[in-house]
Specification:
81 residues, mainly alpha, 70% helix, rod-shaped, Cyt_c_biogenesis_Cmc1-like, COX assembly mitochondrial protein, disulfide bond, mitochondrion
């Protein structure tokens, strides 16, 4: 199963999404027998890469936030004493 195939949410995979949707439109019956399987595999790989990039960006953002919070806690502790 894949996430909803909206182009604005997956700009990295836009080309593959369009190909996959076109395949489904052109082959309404044979899509159930593996006609579009290669494109589906390609789409899944693209989604994995996209997710890995998002995960890395979120991790970097969380590291910055943790550092900011630690600095703020340290500053607050120094001011209280």
């Amino acid at each position: 199963m894949h996430p909803p195939l909206t182009l604005h949410r997956h700009p990295m995979c836009a080309e593959v999404i369009e190909e996959f949707q076109k395949c489904h439109l052109e082959h309404p019956i044979t899509k159930f027998f593996g006609e579009c399987t290669e494109l589906k595999i390609k789409l899944d790989r693209c989604f994995r890469q996209e997710k890995a990039l998002k995960r890395k960006a979120n991790f970097e953002q969380s590291k910055k936030l943790k550092e900011r919070l630690q600095a703020l806690r340290k500053e607050t502790a120094e001011n209280d004493s």
